[in-house]
Amino acid sequence: MYKILPILIIGILVISVIGASAISVMEENYDQYDMVIITPDTFVSYVQPLVDHKNSHGIETIVKTTEDIYSEYDGRDKPEQIKYYIKDAVESLSIRYILLIGGRLGQQDDWYVPVRHVELDDGAGRGKFFISDLYYSDLYKDEGVFEDWDKNGDDIIAQWPKDKFDLNPDVNIGRLPCRDTSEVENCVDKIIQYENNAYGQSWFNKMVNVGGDSFPDYEGYEGEITCDYVSGYMQGFDITKLYYSTGTLTSSSEVIDAINNGCGFFFTRAKGGTDRIRVPRSDGTEIIALNNDEIDQLSNKDQYPIMILGECQHGQFGMPKPKTKPIFNNAFRFIKEILTRILKIDMIVNKQDPIPLNIGKECIAEKLMYKKDAGAVSVLTNTHICYAAIGDNNQNEIPDDVERYGGFLAAEVFRLYAEENIDILGDIHAKTVENYVSSQPVLMDKYHCKSVLEWVLIGDPSLKIGGYQ
Questions:
Q1: Does domain 9-175 have CATH number 1.20.210.10?
Q2: How many CA atoms lie within 13 A of 284 on its CB side?
Q3: pTM of the predicted protein model
Q4: Does domain 187-319+353-458 have CATH number 1.10.1670.10?
């Protein structure tokens, strides 16, 4: 986390004539659906078991291929074409959930389902471009006007502060950023197994918290304080606290064992990294609580938790899947980056979507999702640098970290589940954003704006938490 010290109906609309043509004919003549899965042709047969499963549980689901969208809808680029389709589907079919299945296409600088990169420089020195799937969820400006994220009309999308965004989600979005059919199969199998079998299982009523001393120069163990506060929401759960201060966390072995023993929720509030979860000690050193290389040690088959990873960059998906010679590929990417920086060669896919610097590392959220018969059923996390607040400056007995930035978004997941009894994951994800937007100056403050832009659901937005009875 990047430190900040605080002082502190949709109506029925006429289909847009801009970029929208009629929705393709469906096999069934329903007036409405619950979910549409957007994916390329190559994944359709592997997605079909999930469609059948969802329909069997009353979540009326259809598939729309990216190829059909590109042939039927106009837009300045592929993400905008997809967004116009989503708007059309919401208005015509009453769609509530959108599941994007597709990540980067092989070793190419292209996507099975493209992303939108936001340009926002937070001053952290980690680059100013990051992925925001909220782009696909934020469909409308005021009075039902299509939200193109280009407020100043310069044809450069999602430039903060030149562009201001509505930011309120109008449909619930999740993504499985799969890069091949085996990853699709693994994710689909875990979702089906979870929803069919988690209900009533003792492992679901377990929760694992991992926290540390994120800012040792300041009093208290900030990550642990946030974890303790969140634990107060989860009445009736058997909570395992893996903390540096108590000696219950000394290495990744305790984390691996806790996941393998089964848990319904796994929550971390420490420090991030694309491929690892870091827990700082008060002496400035750190414990690697889990990294990508250790995910192969997970063996929690049929006991898949929902993971809320409250740190930086865990959701920075988009690396190509390594070939058989990863050293060569990493060297190639490194040379490519050097050429970009020194020779100023234009390595941009298009002017809206620059290629992010993320050399050689898959994000840990992807690895946890793709792991066959182990890992997570869903991950909520951040695609770039996130932030923390320290202390209780307003003396209301609520940690400031729970009241703003990434800590609020992570903690709000548990409050919405436990206190408001929301048990569909995408509803919770969208509500965390909505509640943040309504309570913080997101249009004026870049840290608040970025906090919601980078908050991502890697998983099925229609997921029934705890499974079907």
A1: no
A2: 1
A3: 0.87
A4: no
